[in-house]
Amino acid sequence: TQLLEQSPQFLSIQEGENLTVYCNSSSVFSSLQWYRQEPGEGPVLLVTVVTGGEVKKLKRLTFQFGDARKDSSLHITAAQPGDTGLYLCAGGRNNDMRFGAGTRLTVKP
Amino acid sequence: KAGVTQTPRYLIKTRGQQVTLSCSPISGHRSVSWYQQTPGQGLQFLFEYFSETQRNKGNFPGRFSGRQFSNSRSEMNVSTLELGDSALYLCASRTAGAGSSYNEQFFGPGTRLTVL
Predict the structure, then answer these.
(1) Is B4 in Cβ contact with A95 (below 8 Å)?
(2) In whole numbers, what is the pLDDT of chain B averaged over residues?
(3) Which residue of A has its CA nearest to B38?
């Protein structure tokens, strides 16, 4: 059983559509990170959220940390083919980090 | 600042052999973690080294080992390779001092290991 559950596992949409992916846990985290990974490469850090209820925006991407610091969401507006990749969330507690299994997003032109 | 570097990028070995992978963290980062990534299992934590000491360990057999040098560079070794060890091996570094709460990790490009 994954400590962090990500949903959906796979998502295929058309360019221009909006989407939201989720990262849920029963554990409280001191911080949560979102990464995007392209095939054959390492994950690239997108954002870190640390405060319950925090919302961060990165161009068309909006990240939210749940009030209880147990869950997070990533919303993409007007998705583009360049957004295609594996989106991973990672939760940190003390000096320990755990990753979700990821959401594989495909944006078709 | 240079990112995390891993060598080699690609490696082909046969069953029973051993392999050593290398990771150079971002300058100033003292923690190095290793992960195995496969399509079926996702990103699995192997171990973390901090100041030359193994601080955390995942659920992998003893064939997987690692070490960290005084300059924070790290190596991982896999002995008696099995077909199932074929994977992308990722290294990540962070500052992660005592009481660190941000835990941001920065990944290298990975080493793609193929075991034949």
Answers:
(1) no
(2) 91
(3) A101
